[in-house]
Amino acid sequence: MAAAGLLGAVATLASRRLLCAPPGAARGRAAVLGPARRFGASARAWRSSEDKVTVHFINRDGDKLTAEGKIGDSLLDVVVDSNLDIDGFGACEGTLACSTCHLIFEDQIFKKLDAVTDEEMDMLDLAYGLTETSRLGCQICLKKFMNNMTVRVPEAVADVRQSIDMSKNS
Fold first, then answer.
1. CB 69 within 8 A of CB 53
2. What residue stretches are annotated with the 2Fe-2S ferredoxin-type domain (predicted)?
3. Domains, the chain, ranges and CATH?
4. pLDDT tens digit string along 10-46?
5. Taking the model in full, what pTM does it have?
């Protein structure tokens, strides 16, 4: 049973990484393990600040949380990797089985996002506080134009797998 759990975790990671992979990027094991180190350059030089995007999250309680992510990371990756304290965020780990990573975008950013898929729309229909500029963070990959954007976490989260809502009033 432990091996099945590990394989499931690797499959989830692989699907999240492939979601944000640029066209022509490595697929399969290479995509999960990441790019090989370039010869003649240190790892730090290769990952410059130009490869990173700063994102500001307005949490349910009004607090502003700021984190950095690499271009190509999903917003779910940014929250998880930065260990941001957003209750219930990303409960399904990016498998499009919930709407807990629901975020509300500013109009000028929302207009530039990639098209929403039918699967994402199905999950957004279950989201609490849905707006015209709502998207799921697991489906939005960081791009350079998003640097210093602010996204808002809705007041509550609806997770159909739980009997209670997690909100700022809980």
1. yes
2. 53-157
3. 52-152 (3.10.20.30)
4. 444 445 545 675 544 543 333 443 443 333 444 444 4
5. 0.70
